[in-house]
Amino acid sequence: MGTPLLVQNAGEVSLSGTWTLVSLMASDQDPRRALASLGQVQGWNLLGVERLDSAAAVLLWRTWGRRWPERLEISPTLRATLERVADLPPESPAVRDYRDSLVGRVGRLTLSILRNMLGLVELYGRLVLDLFFLCRHPRDIPWKEFSANLYKAGAQALPVSALVGFLIGITISYLSALQLKTYGADLFIVNILGISIIRELGPVLVAVLVAGRSGSAMTAQIGVMRVTEEIDALSTLGVSRTIRVVLPKVAALTVAMPLLVVWSSASALLGGALAAFWQLDFSFTYFFSMLPKAVPIANLWIGLAKGAVFGFLIALLACQFGLHVRPNTESLSMRTTASVVTAITLVIIVDAVFAIFTRNLGMPS
Fold this sequence. Notes:
The chain is an alpha/beta fold.
């Protein structure tokens, strides 16, 4: 195999040797750089070239400016190789890669949000159709799956929700008592604790806890079923995955959340009453006897409604992200994290919407 050689004499370039990709890469003189540095050339002599492959032909064609030179001495075999290269369509202009730019990141985020919203609407539609089916076939209602999810998402969450609610109640009551005592408004501690906990903090606090605890568990469970192909096995057996997997989780968390809100709010009020007793010397009897007068019953219904809506959204999001887990562990961890973050963000947004539409309800006159 001859080494590719390039000689320029009196405006003419003579090529000899073997001009292939392998020989060009192995050559000590780097003929590619020599071709790129050529000046004005009147003719080309390729009669000494023993072999010419497509890579070298493309290099020559680009050196010629994608047109045939005025004077060319070449064998018919090599000319046929160059003609095949000349017949190739022109290269398309380079497209700027926007993936790492701000516009690209915003675009990908927007498309991801739209896809998730469309997936949620689709999953919600399936659940509605499944409910109509179960109304006509009550024997197919998955009571065991519903009770199991109700126990996991509700009963097992009672200790942690009570502890967190109790500590939050103590903290809010302690900090509020310090400020109220300064202005001589000690009696309003009941109003502050009652409205803030029953109407706002109770539902939101429980929603954040449930999203991090039960929501992540639901996403991980369904994701593992996707990885192990159990979801596909259900479809193969003719079993609806939404009836057996998704619907029990959504229904159980929707039922459990209002109960958890009441439980956590009661624990927070107990902690607040304890802190008020320490700081302001309010008895428990006075605190809880003033609570119904300071907090209208409408606030309790608003808190329960928030709990039901939050539970439904958290479970729906968890199932949606779990069903879209790809069969690998990296996708499982990413979807679980995205499920928790999205659920907490959506809970805060929905809570703001509730605050706007219920701003005139349940406020003491």
